[in-house]
Design the sequence.
């Protein structure tokens, strides 16, 4: 009899638990928070921003211990207004994105006094893992060049992997004032004529690792801005786009620095530039200790460039005596074809020449070299660079 009563009580408890509201189902041991359980519609039209905020609050505030997970399920499309996932959190956090996230267009963008320039921001977080089979769609075709897409800010030990990013209104992924960021196995795409749609932009960040990623956009596949150091970029397919760029640095006379950058095993496919260092006239600072090696160019227009006279068409460009110093740059094992007349171009300042430029085993077909104010050495370089010994 006693056993029968116990079994009956267990049955009643199990039955009643099944009918609890879904957001109340998280027991003390359940640390996965599905955005659908917090009211997200996932129909691509309804505003799911509040549901994501609530799911994030639960995930980030989950009791200390093993990592908590915020889950964005597959088979659904979630419409999000500008949103900040802010820390610090009480434990490590996983975000699994298997569905599709879409951004608002110009007429739908909701932002206080139009101050927010980013769509999705992760701020002040440590030990954050973002992964999944989903797509982050910035809907950028409606307003190219206006807003950044997916930004990592003031964070450490961040891992991003396996996702697809497309059509960001501006830069697809920004890494800013962060350390120890690992990016792998992404696909980033936008149309070739889309403006300022860099694949990944790094600034004021150190110890960033990017590998095994395909990037095809309308601007730099990867761009490296001021304050960046100790970067390792490898196994990248780039094109169309503007190649992999250090800079631009020194705009409006600013003092800016980039150093300790290693770029290897890159395929450049039909890009307008290849591996490039670009600095503004009149700038200050340095770009140094940079290596480009095992690069293959498939009809890139200018596979190798240093340009200390960078100036776009929207400014009245004048000559200046000061310049960002470019030094200790190594080019090693770079092969392929150039569809432009100049395959190697070094345009350096007379007052602050480029120095310690080393080139080894370079063979670029269908192009010549152009150089001024460059000091360094070359070995087995074609087309030969006359400024180098």
Sequence:
């Amino acid at each position: 009899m006693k056993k029968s009563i116990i079994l009956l009580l267990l049955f009643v408890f199990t039955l009643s638990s099944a009918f609890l509201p879904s957001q109340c189902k998280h027991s003390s041991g359940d640390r996965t928070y599905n955005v659908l359980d917090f009211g997200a519609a996932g129909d691509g039209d309804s505003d799911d921003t509040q549901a994501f905020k609530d799911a994030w609050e639960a995930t980030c505030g989950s009791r200390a211990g093993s990592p908590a997970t915020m889950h964005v399920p597959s088979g659904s499309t979630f419409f999000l207004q500008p949103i900040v996932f802010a820390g610090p959190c009480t434990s490590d956090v996983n975000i699994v994105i298997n569905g599709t996230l879409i951004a608002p267009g110009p007429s739908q963008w909701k932002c206080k006094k139009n101050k927010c320039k980013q769509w999705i921001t992760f701020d002040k977080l440590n030990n954050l893992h973002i992964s999944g089979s989903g797509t982050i769609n910035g809907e950028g075709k409606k307003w190219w060049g206006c807003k950044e897409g997916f930004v990592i800010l003031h964070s450490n030990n961040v891992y991003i992997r396996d996702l697809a990013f497309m059509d960001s209104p501006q830069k697809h992924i920004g890494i800013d004032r962060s350390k120890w960021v690992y990016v792998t196995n992404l696909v980033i795409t936008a149309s070739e004529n889309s403006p300022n749609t860099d694949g990944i932009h790094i600034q004021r960040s150190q110890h960033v690792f990017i590998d095994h990623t395909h990037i095809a956009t309308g601007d730099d596949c990867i761009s490296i801005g001021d304050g960046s150091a100790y970067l390792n970029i490898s196994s990248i397919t780039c094109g169309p786009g503007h190649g992999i760029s250090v800079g631009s640095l020194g705009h409006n006379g600013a003092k800016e620095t980039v150093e300790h950058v290693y770029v290897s095993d890159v395929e450049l496919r039909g890009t307008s530039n290849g591996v490039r260092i670009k600095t503004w006239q009149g700038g200050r600072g340095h770009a140094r200790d940079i290596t480009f090696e095992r690069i293959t160019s498939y009809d890139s227009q200018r596979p190798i460039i240093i340009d200390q006279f960078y100036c776009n068409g929207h400014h009245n460009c004048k000559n200046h005596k000061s310049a960002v110093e470019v030094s200790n740059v190594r080019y090693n094992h770079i092969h392929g074809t150039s569809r432009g007349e100049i395959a190697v171009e070094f345009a350096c300042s007379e007052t602050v020449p480029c120095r310690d430029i080393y080139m080894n085993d370079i063979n670029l077909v269908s192009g010549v070299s152009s150089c001024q104010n460059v000091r360094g050495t070359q070995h087995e370089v074609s087309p030969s660079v006359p400024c180098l010994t």
About this structure: The chain has two domains: 30-218, 220-389. Residues 1-28 have pLDDT under 50 and may be disordered.
